[in-house]
């Protein structure tokens, strides 16, 4: 995702002679071009062919790369669907808002900036942390929540209703939708249907962008930097939407190296490797977790996801338990390094690790509240 900011001078001199050329069909329901007093913001993720007869035809305006996010400005995204939407500038600005949300959560329990707003949570897969942190985030800011748990079985989806019809109905009751779905790409379908913001809270083995945002936020808070870090992604890399989204975000930083450590049956898919290579990100596959842990700033462990194996329980049993973070792995890690995990965990991180200050996964989960408070505020109110 990127936005373009045009000065009024550039705007007056250029608009008459150019045409805005975009990728999305013109039927997309949400605004992709945001006007301000002295800027026009173009969101290519939500762009559409647009023109104002006799007035606006712009094709290739000079893009000013210095980005500013002024209080009251419209947020550059209509929805949060995938990690590729974000660039470094927006990530840094979101993290600033998250720090403000942390202060609000600690000092001002009665904050009402989202009073009068309703958030609908549609979860077609089980969730504890993600659903509760979103609902807590909304309530911490004075908003209200309409919730469905296990919507796959206890909603009209069980009667055969299409996702699109569900979204059209639910948007009539709420101001923003947070959705987890079992199908990859479902969040994008929901966003294309809805006229209100949609946040992807995980779509099958696809992506989990808000988890990736809180992961990167946690790394910055724990390590103190994002450029020049080494990250080991461990466990179920084939089915883990968290590691996929995290890889996309890490690719936006300089001199990052990523290690992939996983059983053969759940190795990282080629599309992520190819993306990292295209962005100049160094990556390496390894079977030696202890060696990788000694090199890394972050050991990002994940569970082997039994629910993704279907009837192939033999493959699940082959994969589980192969890479475990325990005291032996901790002994190889550097003092400043941290262990992270999107949770829930099974036995892939031993309980003995919990007492080590390098165990960051519960602090990581708490950071999810602040990131999600920030996103709700930005999507509903802007900067």
TrEMBL record:
Keywords on record: Allosteric enzyme, Pyrimidine biosynthesis, Transferase
Pathway: Pyrimidine metabolism; UMP biosynthesis via de novo pathway; (S)-dihydroorotate from bicarbonate: step 2/3
Residue ranges occupied by any Aspartate/ornithine carbamoyltransferase Asp/Orn-binding domain in the UniProt entry: 227-378
Xref: Gene3D superfamilies: Aspartate/ornithine carbamoyltransferase
UniProt-listed SUPFAM superfamilies: Aspartate/ornithine carbamoyltransferase (SSF53671)
Residue stretches making up the Aspartate/ornithine carbamoyltransferase carbamoyl-P binding domain: 79-220
GO cellular component, one term: cytoplasm
Annotated GO MF terms: amino acid binding; aspartate carbamoyltransferase activity
Enzyme Commission number(s): 2.1.3.2
Domain of life: Eukaryota
GO terms (BP aspect): 'de novo' pyrimidine nucleobase biosynthetic process; glutamine metabolic process; pyrimidine nucleotide biosynthetic process
Entry-linked InterPro entries: Asp/Orn_carbamoyltranf_P-bd, Asp/Orn_carbamoylTrfase, Asp/Orn_carbamoylTrfase_sf, Asp_carbamoyltransf, Asp_carbamoyltransf_Asp/Orn-bd
Catalytic activity: carbamoyl phosphate + L-aspartate = N-carbamoyl-L-aspartate + phosphate + H(+)
Stored HAMAP family: Asp_carb_tr
Quaternary state and interactors: Homotrimer.
Record function comment: Catalyzes the condensation of carbamoyl phosphate and aspartate to form carbamoyl aspartate and inorganic phosphate, the committed step in the de novo pyrimidine nucleotide biosynthesis pathway.
Record-given protein name: aspartate carbamoyltransferase
Organism: Lactuca sativa
């Amino acid at each position: 995702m990127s936005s373009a900011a045009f000065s009024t001078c550039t705007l007056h001199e250029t608009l008459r002679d150019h045409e805005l050329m975009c990728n999305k069909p013109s039927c997309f329901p949400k605004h992709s071009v945001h006007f301000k007093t002295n800027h026009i913001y173009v969101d290519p993720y939500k762009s559409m062919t647009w023109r104002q007869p006799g007035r606006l035809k712009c094709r290739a305006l000079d893009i000013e790369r210095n980005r500013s996010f002024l209080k009251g400005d419209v947020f550059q995204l209509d929805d949060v669907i995938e990690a590729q939407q974000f660039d470094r500038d927006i990530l840094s600005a979101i993290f600033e808002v998250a720090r403000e949300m942390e202060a609000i959560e600690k000092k001002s329990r009665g904050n009402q900036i989202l009073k009068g707003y309703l958030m609908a949570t549609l979860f077609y897969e089980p969730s504890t942390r993600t659903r509760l942190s979103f609902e807590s985030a909304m309530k911490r800011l004075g908003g209200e929540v309409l919730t469905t748990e296990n919507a796959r079985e206890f909603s009209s989806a069980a009667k055969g209703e299409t996702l699109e019809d569900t979204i059209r109905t639910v948007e009539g009751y709420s101001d923003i939708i947070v959705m987890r779905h079992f199908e990859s790409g479902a969040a994008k379908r929901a966003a294309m249907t809805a006229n209100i913001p949609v946040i992807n809270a995980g779509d099958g083995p696809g992506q989990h962008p808000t988890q990736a945002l809180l992961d990167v936020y946690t790394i910055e808070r724990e390590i103190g930097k994002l450029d020049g870090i080494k990250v080991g992604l461990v466990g179920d890399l084939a089915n883990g939407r968290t590691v996929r989204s995290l890889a996309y975000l890490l690719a936006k930083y300089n001199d990052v190296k990523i290690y992939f450590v996983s059983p053969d049956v759940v190795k990282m898919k080629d599309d992520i490797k190819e993306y990292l290579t295209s962005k100049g990100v160094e990556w390496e596959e390894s079977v030696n977790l202890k060696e990788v842990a000694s090199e890394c700033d972050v050991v990002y462990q994940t569970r082997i996801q039994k629910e993704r194996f279907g009837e192939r329980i033999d493959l699940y049993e082959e994969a589980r338990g192969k890479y475990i973070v325990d005291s032996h792995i901790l002994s190889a890690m550097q003092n400043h390094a941290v262990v992270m995990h999107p949770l829930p965990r099974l036995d892939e991180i031993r309980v003995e690790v919990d007492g080590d200050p390098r165990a960051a996964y519960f602090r990581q989960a708490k950071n999810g509240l602040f990131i999600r408070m920030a996103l709700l505020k930005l999507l509903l109110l802007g900067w």
